[in-house]
């Protein structure tokens, strides 16, 4: 049975009628038309669907709507704008990271949460913080460079 959910996404309030078990990813993409979080595995194993829930990097494919009542959700589009990009968004462009681009949402959202907690991580801390994310195009070295570049802007 559906219920009415009020979601705060990127500072705006949205209303969604959905099953409480609906993954947040489906609500964002299919109900609210937000295309940044991607469906990859649907099993919390690739990270393509990552958003922030109250500032924490969260895999939205396995997060039911019932778990985000009253929470503040941020997507990649809420991190920055083309005019005022988040340092990671700027660094990904400068380092020319994306190839197909499918995975990039997850890497940036996860790294953004990491840099918020630890603005100047070591290489090892970056690798550990981003472990579990998948990129089939093999952009990993460029990603590490971009995260370091973003950290140097802080
Ligand atoms: S789609 Fe959510 S972790 Fe892969
Ligand atoms: S850039 Fe293609 S999967 Fe990562």
Question: Your description of this structure?
Answer:
This protein is of the alpha+beta class and 154 residues long. 36% of the residues lie in helices and 16% in strands. It has six helices and five strands. The chain has helices spanning 24-31, 76-79, 87-94, 104-117, 123-129, 140-153, and strands spanning 3-9, 12-18, 50-53, 56-59, 72-74. Strands 2-1-5-3-4 form a five-stranded mixed beta sheet, with helices on both faces. A hairpin with a 2-residue loop joins β1 (3-9) and β2 (12-18). The longest helix has 14 residues, at 104-117. The protein is globular and about 45 Å long. The protein starts with a strand and ends with a helix. 41% of the residues are buried. One FE2/S2 (inorganic) cluster is lined by residues 39-42, 44-49, 59, 61.
Provide a quick synopsis of the model:
The chain is of the alpha+beta class. The protein contains six helices and five strands; from the N terminus they run ββαβββααααα. One FE2/S2 (inorganic) cluster (FES) binds at residues 39-42, 44-49, 59, 61.
Main β-sheet, in a few words? 5 strands, mixed
Distinct helical segment count: 6
Q: Tell me roughly what share of residues is in helical segments.
A: 25-40%
Cα shape: globular
Order of SSEs: EEHEEEHHHHH
What is the topology, as strand order, of the major beta sheet? Answer: 2-1-5-3-4
SSE-based structural type: alpha+beta
Q: How many beta-strand runs?
A: 5
Compute the CA-based radius of gyration. Answer: 15 Å
Regions with pLDDT < 50 over 5+ consecutive residues? none
- Proportion in β-strands: 15-25%
Distance between the termini: 47 Å
Indicate the mean pLDDT: 97
Listed once per kind, the bound small molecules are: FE2/S2 (inorganic) cluster
């Amino acid at each position: 049975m559906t219920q009415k959910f009020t979601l705060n996404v990127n500072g705006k309030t949205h209303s969604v009628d959905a099953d409480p078990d609906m993954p947040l990813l489906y609500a964002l993409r299919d109900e609210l038309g937000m295309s940044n979080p991607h469906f990859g595995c649907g099993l919390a194993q690739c990270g393509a669907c990552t958003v922030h829930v109250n500032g924490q990097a969260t895999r939205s494919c396995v997060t039911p709507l019932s778990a985000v009542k009253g929470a503040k959700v941020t997507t990649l589009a809420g991190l920055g704008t083309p005019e005022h990009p988040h340092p990671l968004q700027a660094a990904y462009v400068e380092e020319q990271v994306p190839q197909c681009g499918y995975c990039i949402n997850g890497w940036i959202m996860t790294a953004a949460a990491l840099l918020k907690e630890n603005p100047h991580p070591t290489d090892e801390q970056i690798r550990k913080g981003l472990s579990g994310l998948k990129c089939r195009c093999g952009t990993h070295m460029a990603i590490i460079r971009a995260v370091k570049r973003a950290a140097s802007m802080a």
